[in-house]
Each structure stands twice: as C-alpha cells, then as structure tokens.
C-alpha cells in the first residue's frame, strides 16, 4: 500500500518559531553568553526528542501496514474458500437432483456388472500367476543345465590346455634332442623354399623368353605384309568412277542401275579375290588383337583405301595409329562382344546390324565423329551357314582385301542390312561421311568381334581425343624395318634372359635336392621324438574334439536357457498386463460404488455442502471486517507519523535559528547590527535562504574587527545590534518556513 503525505511549514509557524527563539536570544544576551549556550542545548535536546517520536511513529506505522497485509491475505483466502464451497454446493445440488430411484438402481446395477468384471480380471491374474510360476520353474531347470554344461565346457577346455601343454613339451623335447638337426632342417626348408620360388620365377622367365622368341618371328609377318601390299592393289575403271560419282551426286534409280552395271557385283569381287597373293609365309597362326598384327592390318587397309581415293581424285588420305586401333578394339568388345551383338547373324541376313546406340555412346565418350563399316571378316557362308575360319595371317589380310572389294563393287542390289553403296560412299567422301560432318582428319581402326566379323572404325582425330597419336608409318618397308629391328632386339634380350634363367634353374634344382636330403636325414635321426610329438598331437586332437562337443552342448543349453528366460519374461509381461487390467477394473468399480454412495447419501452431502458454504461466507465476512479495522489503524498510524515529522522539522528550525542568533549576538557593534538589520530586510525582500544571512553576519564581524581600533564600544551599539538581530531573525524565520515545504513518501 502506497501513501503520500505533504508536510507544510507555513510562514506563520516560521514566524512563531523565530519569535520564540529571538525572545530567548534577547534574554540570553541581556544576561550572559552562557545563557545562550544553555538555550542551544535545550533546542538540540528538543530535536533529539522529536526524532525519537518520529521513529516510534514509523514503527507503529510499519506494524499497522503488516496487519493490513495479513488481513488482506485472509480475505483472499476466505474468498477462495467461498468459491470452492460454492462449487461443491452446486455439485451436491446436482447430485441431489440426480438421486432418483431409477438412477440409484441403474448405478447399483453398474456396480454389480463391474464386480463381475473385477472377479474375471482377478481370476485371469491368478491363472497368469500360475503360468509365471511354471515358466520360472522351467527357467530354473534350464539354468541348472546351463550351469552344468558350462562346467563341462570348462573341464574340456582344461583338457585342451593340458594336451596343448603336452604337445608343447613333446615338441620342446624334439627341439632339445635334435637342436642341431632342427637347425639344419630349418635351413634346408628355407633353401627348399627359396629353390622352389627360384624354379617358379625362372620357369616364368623361360616362358617369357620363349614367347619373346616366338614374337621375334614377326619378321615373317612383316615380310609377308610388305609382299602382298605391293601386289594386292584394287583398280577402278573410269566408267565405274564416273557412275559412282553420278550416283552419289544423285542417288536415282537410273544412276543406281548404271552403277550396278559397271560395278559387275559379285563376279568382279570373285575375280579380285582370285588375284589375292597366296604365299606359304602367310599361313601362320596369329592373334588378331596382337599389336604387331593390328598395325599390319590397319596399315594394309589404309594403303588399299588411299590408293582408291587417289584414283577417285581425292588428295586427302586416311591415317592409321595405335590409338585408333586400341579404340576400335575397345568399342567392338564393349558394344558387340559384351552385349552379344551379332551384326550379321548365322546366315548373313538374320543379324542385328550396326549397334547405333553403341556408336552414339562411344562418339560421346570420345567427343568425336565415328563411322563404322563391317564385313564378313573371318567367316564364309557354306550351304547358307556361317563357319569360323582358321585365324591365320593369310585369312586376316584376305578378309580385309575381300571386304574392301565387296564394299566397292557389290554394295548395291538386294542388300537388306545396309544402305546401297553406303560403304563406297564412306570410302570416298571428303569431310562428310553418310551426311555427317566432322570427318576432316580420318584415322582407321580395325578389329574383329567374337563372331569373326570385321569392323572398320573411321574416327575424326583431334588434339583433344588423341586418336591420331602413335601414328603408324604407311611406308610398308619402313614399318617392316622398324618392326624387324624391335623384334631382333627383343629376341636377343630374350635369349640372354633365357640363358640366365636356365642357369638359375639348375642352381635352384640343386638346392631343392640338397634341402630334401637334409630333411630326410632329420626325419631319420629324430624318429622317436617325432613319435612322441605325433602322440601328443593325437591327444590334443581328441581333447579339441571333446571340447567342441562340450561347446556345442553348452551353446544348446544356453539357447534353451535364453528361450526359458524369454518365456518367463513373456509370462511376467502377461501377468503385469492382467494386473493392470484388474487395477483398472477395480478403479472403475470404486468409481461406480462412489457414485452409488453419493446418490444414496445425496441429502447428507447436500446439507454438508450447504453448511460448508455458509461457514465460508461467514469467514469471508469476518476477514473483511478485520481488514477494515486494520486499514483504520493504518490511517491513524500514518497521521501520527506525519504529525511527529512536522514536530521534528519545527524543532530543527528552532535549533538552527538559536545557533544563528547566538553567533550574531556575540561580538557585534552598533554599525554591524544596523548592517545585519539591513541584510535581514534585504533577505525578506529577496527571499534568500539561511546561508545568505550567515554570510552577512560573518562579514559584519570582520568589519567590527577592522573598526575596533578606531570606534568606541558603547551600550547603544549593543542595543542597536540586538534590535536589528531581532528583525533579521524574524525575517529569517519567515524565509525558513517558506522554504520548509517537504514531501515524504511512505511505502509498505
């Protein structure tokens, strides 16, 4: 509770106070200065007394404030009690209204029904308790069996440890008795191991040397390719070139017929095939993917094509490179072999054709343009069925020669698997192949799929895709010489390596024989100890078998124990669920019984609620009255505190005036008193505070000291000073009263 009180010291009070003080001061001055000191002591005592009264009034005020706070809390509590009692009374009234015979009968019936539910739930709890007891018994039995199995396992483990120790002892005895022999055995075994490794390594080196010698025979391939390259050329007639240009410029039916007529088709192809050079040096079995063979085939094919392009009047030539060959082999493996893509099928007319999706994907992968031509390659059609021919150098070169001849002269007519004359178009177009731009720097790669068909991949080589890197020389003689030089160097190195490996192999075999002899000597000299070791090993094996059996039994019993524990836990969970159901049913029964009791005792409950409500109202009335009385006491205490503070303020003013009067009356002259009076009049006029008057009196006293030597001291001067002092003090009292306005805030 907050209170504000203003204490006003009016001008009237100030004047009265000042007058009294002046009178006392005059009396004191008339007597002696000692009397003035006594007056000061009296006013100071008054100040202390009034301050004590203020403190006592403040204490009374605080006590009254505490009483008000306590009474207010009691009122709040009583009000809350009335609210609660009112709610209880309303509930009791509603219960009384519901207490009909029909409702009582219905509630009683519900109690009976719920009692049946409780009995059933109690029976379920009892039955489940029996299940839990049985499960606990099974779990205890399983625990006993598991404990026994664990003990058996521990015993078996101890037996294994004992057998292991016995074996260690036997082996230690063997080592101790035959330490020298054992060391020799270790050295022999190490030598035998090293010899075996040397044999394997040397044999591999020999095989590699032999393979190198075989590869050195590539000179035959080089010579054979150089020979057929100079003789196997394909020439085109002027009539054919003219007809082909006319058709490619305008692929009309008339131009197609004219081209077909001069091309002579399969007959001319057979004529060319009969001219293919056959030499015994070509009948060597080779691997089509061997780099040397790949180089020979691609150079052979590119030279055939460039010779044809030159006849056609083109100045740009195709190139061949190792990178283009690698790309061709990779493409055919990925999109034909791995995908089981048979381009021609088994008869030449039931194949899948070109793998266009594969071409698009590979072109994206290499970021270039790709065109593909394909031929029968290593297959021939006999009685309408494709068969795989022997892969010889003759067959590979013949396949390339035959495919290019077929593309030129037998590409029209009834071909269902490709566009008519599209292969010839791919050979002779410049910058564009089959309508696709981006073939300004063509490199050819040759590869054979797993079905034996030949693939000719035409790549546009750029600095970015590096397909033109590692280019082959198209000068067959130069390439042949380079291959021969490399082959001869490899052969020489292989022979030297073979000689070294043969020597190492002989040394390694001798070391193996020596190691075997040492091993035999060791076995003969340590037969008895070896028997002991063998026996210990047998015992250890038996102990380990027993241990494994015990371990299996232990795991079985542990599993049974776990299952029994799970069953017990499930039974206990079911028991807890049944107990929870029973508790819920009992709680529901208690609630229904309470409802019946409330209905039956509705009159008594209503009477009790009414009495409680009336008592709460009475308590609230009493608390409210107590609060009013406490507030009255607080107001009285507040008034008394304000009065005490007023009195204390007046006492302080009187003390201040008395002290000032005493100062002025002691040692002033008539002139000083006149000056003091004038200063007091000025103070009244200007409304200055007490400090201005004190400053003036001090100045008058200094003036008295200065004039004391030249002015006589008379009684008139003292009287004049007294009169002026009275006037000054009167005005001072009025000023002090006017400036005595003060506020005090009382907060509790």
Write up this protein.
A four-stranded mixed β-sheet has the order 2-8-9-3, sandwiched between helices. Strands 1-10 form a two-stranded antiparallel sheet. The chain has a two-stranded antiparallel ribbon with strand order 4-5. Helix content is 76%, strand content 7%. Helix 3 packs antiparallel against helix 15, helix 8 runs antiparallel to helix 12 and helix 17 runs parallel beside helix 19. The chain is elongated, with a radius of gyration of 66 Å. The N terminus and C terminus are likely disordered. With 748 residues, the protein is of the alpha+beta class. The termini are close together. Strand 6 and strand 7 form a beta hairpin. The chain has 19 helices and ten strands.
- List the uncertain runs: 1-23, 414-418, 679-748
Largest sheet features: 4 strands, mixed
Q: Could you tell me how far the N terminus lies from the C terminus, measured between alpha carbons in angstroms?
A: 5 Å
Number of helices: 19
What is the chain-wise order of helices and strands?
EHHHHHHHHHEHHEEEHHEEEEHHHHHHE
* Shape by Cα distribution: elongated
The proportion of residues in beta strands is 5-15%
Give the strand order of the largest sheet, numbering strands 1, 2, ... along the chain.
2-8-9-3
Helix content: over 70%
Structural class: alpha+beta
Briefly say what this structure is.
The chain has helices at 11-31, 33-98, 101-177, 179-216, 218-231, 238-249, 253-263, 265-275, 291-312, 322-337, 356-366, 393-409, 422-428, 476-525, 527-600, 602-665, 670-686, 690-707, 715-738, and strands at residues 2-7, 319-320, 370-375, 379-382, 385-388, 431-433, 436-439, 442-448, 454-460, 742-747. By secondary structure, it is of the alpha+beta class. A hairpin with a 5-residue loop joins β8 and β9 (454-460).
């Amino acid at each position: 509770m907050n209170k504000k009180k203003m204490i006003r010291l009016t001008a009237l009070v100030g004047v009265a106070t000042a007058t009294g003080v002046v009178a006392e001061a005059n009396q004191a001055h008339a007597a002696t200065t000692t009397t003035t000191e006594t007056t000061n002591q009296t006013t100071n005592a008054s100040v202390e007394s009034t301050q004590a009264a203020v403190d006592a009034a403040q204490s009374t005020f605080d006590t009254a404030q505490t009483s008000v706070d306590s009474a207010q809390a009691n009122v709040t509590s009583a009000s809350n009690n009335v609210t609660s009692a009112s709610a209880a009374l309303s509930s009791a009234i509603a219960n009384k209204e519901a207490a009909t015979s029909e409702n009582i009968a219905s509630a009683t019936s519900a109690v009976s029904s719920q009692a049946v539910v409780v009995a059933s739930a109690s029976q379920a709890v009892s039955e489940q308790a029996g299940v839990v007891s049985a499960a606990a018994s099974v779990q205890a039995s399983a625990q006993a069996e598991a404990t026994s199995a664990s003990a058996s396992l521990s015993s078996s483990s101890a037996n294994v440890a004992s057998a292991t120790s016995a074996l260690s002892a036997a082996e230690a005895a063997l080592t101790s008795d035959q330490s020298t022999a054992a060391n020799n055995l270790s050295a022999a075994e190490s030598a035998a191991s090293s010899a075996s490794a040397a044999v394997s390594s040397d044999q591999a080196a020999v095989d590699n040397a032999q393979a190198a010698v075989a590869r050195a025979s590539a000179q035959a391939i080089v010579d054979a390719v150089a020979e057929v390259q100079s003789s196997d050329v394909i020439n085109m007639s002027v009539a054919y070139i003219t007809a082909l240009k006319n058709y490619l410029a305008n692929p009309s039916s008339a131009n197609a017929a004219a081209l077909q007529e001069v091309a002579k088709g399969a007959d001319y192809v057979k004529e060319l095939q009969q001219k293919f050079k056959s030499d015994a040096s070509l009948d060597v079995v080779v691997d089509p993917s061997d780099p040397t063979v790949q180089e020979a085939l691609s150079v052979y094919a590119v030279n055939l094509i460039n010779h044809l392009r030159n006849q056609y009047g083109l100045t740009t030539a195709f190139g061949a490179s190792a990178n283009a060959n690698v790309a061709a082999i990779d493409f055919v493996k990925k999109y034909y072999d791995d995908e089981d893509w048979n381009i021609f099928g088994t008869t030449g007319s039931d194949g899948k054709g070109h793998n266009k999706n594969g071409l698009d994907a590979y072109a994206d992968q290499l970021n270039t343009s790709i065109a593909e031509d394909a031929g029968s390659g290593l297959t021939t059609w006999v009685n309408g069925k494709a068969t795989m021919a022997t892969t010889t150098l003759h067959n590979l070169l013949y396949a390339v020669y035959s495919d290019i001849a077929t593309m030129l002269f037998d590409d029209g007519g009834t071909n269902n698997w490709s566009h008519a004359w599209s292969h010839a178009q791919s050979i002779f177009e410049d910058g564009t192949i089959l309508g696709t731009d981006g073939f300004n720097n063509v490199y050819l790669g040759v590869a054979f799929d797993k079905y034996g068909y030949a693939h000719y991949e035409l790549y546009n080589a750029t600095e970015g895709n590096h397909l033109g890197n590692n280019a082959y020389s198209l000068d067959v003689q130069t390439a042949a010489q380079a291959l021969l030089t490399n082959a001869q160097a490899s052969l020489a190195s292989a022979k030297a390596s073979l000689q070294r490996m043969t020597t190492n192999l002989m040394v390694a075999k001798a070391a193996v024989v020596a190691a075997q002899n040492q091993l035999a000597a060791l076995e003969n000299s340590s037969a008895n100890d070896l028997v002991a070791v063998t026996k210990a090993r047998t015992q250890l094996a038996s102990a380990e078998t027993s241990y494994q059996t015990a371990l299996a039994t232990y795991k079985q019993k542990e599993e049974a124990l776990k299952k029994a524990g799970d069953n017990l836990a499930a039974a206990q969970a079911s028991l807890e669920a049944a107990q929870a159901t029973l508790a819920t049913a009992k709680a529901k029964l208690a609630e229904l019984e309470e409802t019946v009791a409330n209905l039956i005792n509705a009159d008594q409950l209503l009477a009790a609620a009414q009495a409680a409500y009336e008592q709460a109202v009475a308590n609230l009335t009493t608390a409210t009255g107590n609060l009013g009385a406490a507030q009255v006491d607080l107001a009285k205490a507040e008034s008394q505190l304000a009065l005490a503070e007023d009195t204390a303020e007046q006492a302080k003013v009187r003390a201040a005036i008395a002290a000032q009067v005493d100062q002025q009356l002691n040692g002033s002259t008539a002139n000083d008193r006149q000056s003091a009076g004038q200063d007091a009049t000025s103070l009244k006029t200007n409304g200055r505070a007490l400090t201005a008057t004190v400053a003036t009196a001090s100045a008058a006293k200094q003036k008295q000291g200065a004039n004391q030597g030249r002015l006589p001291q008379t009684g008139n001067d003292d009287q004049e000073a007294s009169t002026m002092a009275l006037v000054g003090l009167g005005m001072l009292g009025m000023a002090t009263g006017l400036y005595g306005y003060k506020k005090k805030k009382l907060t509790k």
